[in-house]
Amino acid sequence: MSALALAVRDSSTMLRRNLLHARRYPSLTLNVLLTPIVLLLLFVYVFGDVMSAGIGGGGADRSEYIAYLVPGILLMTIGATPAGTAVSVSMDMTEGIIARFRTMAIHRGSVLIGHVVGSVLQTVVSVVVVGAVAVAIGFRSTDATALEWLAALGLLVLVAMAFTWVAVGMGLASPNAEAAGNNALPLIILPLVSSAFVPVDAMPGWFQPIAEYQPFTPAIETLRGLLLGSEIGHNGWLTIAWCLGLATLGYLWSKALFNRDPG
User: Fold this and answer.
1) How confident is the model at residue 98 (pLDDT cuts 50, 70, 90)?
2) Mean pLDDT estimate for the chain
3) How far apart (Å, rounded) are the C-alpha atoms in residues 94 and 65?
4) Contacts of 30 (CB under 8 A, 6+ apart)
5) Binning pLDDT at 50, 70 and 90, where does residue 141 land?
């Protein structure tokens, strides 16, 4: 069997293992889903009219704020999912299963690949569920073409993969599952201080750089442009650069930690 075929076979096995773990521990998936859904409903039905009037500078129109809010909520869903990946990787490292895998004739990278692909698949499912809730409460994207929808899906997958590799590194670097969850907390907080809820130029001057110079804001603005036809500008290239940089950093970090001498 060639090295590529071995890697694909072992990675598929590890992917099935991680998906089975997700089925056995549905509470992690539910927590990931509940947070963005609750925030979506809260900001639409409690703050929607006020936020619409503030952003639009005119009368309250909740439907306009739904259109503005949903892309940010979808990216927030992606930011929350890798925390579970960090916890899962840390549990594997501390419970001894990785030591067992090291003694077996399997492709070394398959363990990490299984975690990454499994997490990205779970993220896509979570985004679809949250998107369905958004559509049910009034979100519409009538101006987006089939190509723009395809680009939006590719963007979501790219962002999910980038942050998943970072989360894998956090899990490997953490001494236990609790620490891994705490280390992944910035991935949950960053979307909250981005342009997900209000435009960057509506924030206080001292706070605007925090919201602007981070990966979630350009990703949110790019997704808004694809789904709503708004101006994307340089945000598309910034998003790709952020994702490639984070994915490369996360991969190299994870590989170095995984290959280090366990003794």
Assistant:
1) confident
2) 84
3) 45
4) none
5) confident
pLDDT beyond 70 at 261: no
Tell me the DSSP string of 142-183: TT--HHHHHHHHHHHHHHHHHHHHHHHHHHHH-SSHHHHHHH
Q: Which two tokens stand for residue 76?
A: 């927030």
| Geometric angle at alpha carbon 109, from 103 and 114, rounded to 5° | 105
At 95, which amino acid appears? E
- Report the Cα 247 to chain-centroid distance in Å: 12
Query: Residue 124 has which token pair?
Result: 């896509």
- At CA 193, angle to CA 159 and CA 77, rounded to 5? 40
57: left (phi over 0), alpha (psi -120 to 50) or beta: left
Q: To 5 degrees, how large is the angle CA 61–CA 66–CA 71? A: 150
| Residue 10 in tokens | 């072992």
Torsion over CA: 257, 88, 19, 158 (sign): negative
Distance set, CA 248 to CA 101, 187, 243 (Å) = 24, 17, 8
Q: How far apart are CA 48 and CA 63, in angstroms?
A: 8
